[in-house]
Amino acid sequence: xxxxxxxxxxxxxxxxxxxxxxxxxxxxxxxxxxxxxxxxxxxxxxxxxxxxxxxxxxxxxxxxxxxxxxxxxxxxxxxxxxxxxxxxxxxxxxxxxxxxxxxxxxxxxxxxxxxxxxxxxxxxxxxxxxxxxxxxxxxxxxxxxxxxxxxxxxxxxxxxxxxxxxxxxxxxxxxxxxxxxxxxxxxxxx
Length: 190
Known about the structure:
Elements: H1 3-11, H2 16-36, H3 40-49, H4 58-67, H5 83-95, H6 100-107, H7 118-129, H8 138-145, H9 149-166, H10 173-184
Helix pairs in contact: 1-3, 2-3, 2-7, 3-6, 3-7, 5-6, 6-7, 7-9, 8-9, 9-10
């Protein structure tokens, strides 16, 4: 699927503000793929569709999670997580994208997962550091992303977990497991 066609499809699903974010994620993902030897076309496609389901009604997402027998634990956590796995399902069903790597990158862009692929890491980090993001810690992750995708991912996971802990919110198990797997495979935490 060509970029223009993909962007047109996504533009109909999201707000103008989120569309600008999507363009930032796309450009960042392309840059990271080129830097780290990832598949540029797959990074572009996954980035374009990463927030496809972001504005679907919660009731629709909850129904899909149940009907598709996605992990029930999703429903116990913040609904901000839902659009990623639901989006992967809907991108396959409604758009017809069947590339497993692209769908997995969409599915795990909010939670991460242990032993992430290069493409999954690229989309997770690109979503975190795209130029429109402005929050404490993002600049450090942007700098890390210039020299180490794993270090950027590790720091973004740390920042996310600390943010959730400070707000007394539960941390999704996949996020904790992603962090642990990176540390155990030799990533440094500082």
